[in-house]
Amino acid sequence: MEIIIAATKSCQHRPSLEKVLQKAWLPYKVNYFEEHPEIFEKYQLKHSPLLIVDEKVASVGMPEIDIINDLKARNTDISEIRIPKRDKNHMIPKNIGTELGLVEVDVTWGSIQSIKAAQSVHTVGEVEVYQHHMKGLPIIDARKPDTSDGVTIPGSKNIPYDELVGRMEELDESNPSIFFCNGPQCPQSSTAIKNLLGAGYPADRILYYRGGMHDWITLGLPVQKL
C-alpha cells in the first residue's frame, strides 16, 4: 500500500496529517505540489493536503477517522512500516574506517522473522550461543555462501539451509545444534528449521539463534573467516 500526502510547502495541515499517520503506524511519503506539478494534472485538485492511497484520492483535506481506521486495517504486514529497501544493500554490518567498534548497518533488507522459528523450537540469544560453543556443542551456519560476506561465528559449521535435509547425517545425533543466519530479517535459518522438522528431525535437537550475524557483530562479538 502506497500512501502519499500531496501538499503545498506552506500547508498548515500537513504536519497534523503526518502526526495522524505516524500515530497509526502508517507508512507515507510527502510530495509537494511545487516539486510535483504532475499531481495537479493527474487529479485536477488544488486542495492541500490531499491523501492519496494507491494512486487514488482517499481524502481532500484532513481525513475522517474512518478513513484512517480503514487504512490501519489494510496495513497488516509489518514490512509496510519499514524504511524502503535501498537499491544496493548489504546484509552484514560493515566496519567504518579503521576504528574498532564502529559499524554501518543496513536496516532495509530482508523480511522480519518471528522470534520463534517453530512453536516446538527454543530461541536462544548471544549468551546461550557463547556457552554452547564453550561446551564444544554444534553451531550451524545455515546461510548460502554468497550471502555470508566471508565471515561467520567462530566454531560454526556451514551447511546451507537448502542442503540441510539432505545432509542430516552431518548433524550431531546426541546434542542440540544452534542454527543461525544473517539476523532477524533473514529467513534462511528459520526455513532450515522448518525443513528439518518436516523431514522428521527431532525438535529437541534444534535451537534457533534469531539474532544471527547482524546482532552478533553489532554487539561487538568476534567473527572468523569462512
From TrEMBL:
InterPro entries found in the cross-reference section: Rhodanese-like_dom, Rhodanese-like_dom_sf
SUPFAM superfamilies referenced in this protein's UniProt entry, alphabetically: Rhodanese/Cell cycle control phosphatase
CDD domains: RHOD
Domain Rhodanese: 133-225
PROSITE patterns: RHODANESE_3 (PS50206)
Pfam families on file: Rhodanese
The protein's name: Rhodanese-like domain-containing protein
Species, as recorded: Aequorivita antarctica
